[in-house]
Amino acid sequence: MARIPLDPPRTPLTRLAAWYSRRTYGKVLEPLMALAHNRRVLVSDSLFELSVARWKKLDPGLKDLAVMASSAAIGCSWCMDFGYWESRRRGVSHEKLRDVPCWRDSEVYTPLERDVLEYAEAMTATPPVVEDDLVERLRGRLGEAALVELTAMVAVENLRSRINSALGLTSQGFKDRCEIPVRPGA
After folding, report:
1. Of 101-115, 129-143, 171-185, which gets the smallest average pLDDT?
2. Domain 60-162 falls in which CATH fold?
3. 3-class DSSP state for residue 11?
4. pLDDT tens across 115-153, in order?
5. I need a surface site. Which of 45, 81, 84, 121 has the fewest CB within 10 A?
6. Residue spans per domain, the chain
7. Mean pLDDT for all residues in the chain
């Protein structure tokens, strides 16, 4: 249950945000309505997300896996639900998305995808536990521009997932069922 009402004051801005959300995603995104309680936060976040959507140096499939790994590490069911739906729309396989929370035990990932998933988890840990050799492997395979974008995407997803989790936002039904299995040893 959300920890903040998802029916903010009706203003031209909230009506515009709801209209855009319905048109783009088929329903009004609950994080958008939660942020709408603070006009400046809503506007800043919306402009930031529009800017993030224009980043194109990193392969979209790798970006999706990194975002999902960060969401899973934090335990944000809203982000896992929405991320699964968005990633499937972009063509990422069900098996890869399903196995993100237990990627170490899965056979579906390439070595590069495994490094991306490891990097996302390492960055999401508090404090971050990123190893130099992992960064070097990623830099060698991706290049510096894509590595910076990967790093920024994981940080962005940390922001999203932590806001949504703290505000009590849970799966909104973008995916029929969104489970975050417990990793062995976690």
Report:
1. 171-185
2. AhpD-like (1.20.1290)
3. coil
4. 999 999 999 999 999 999 999 999 999 999 999 999 999
5. 45
6. 12-52, 60-162
7. 93
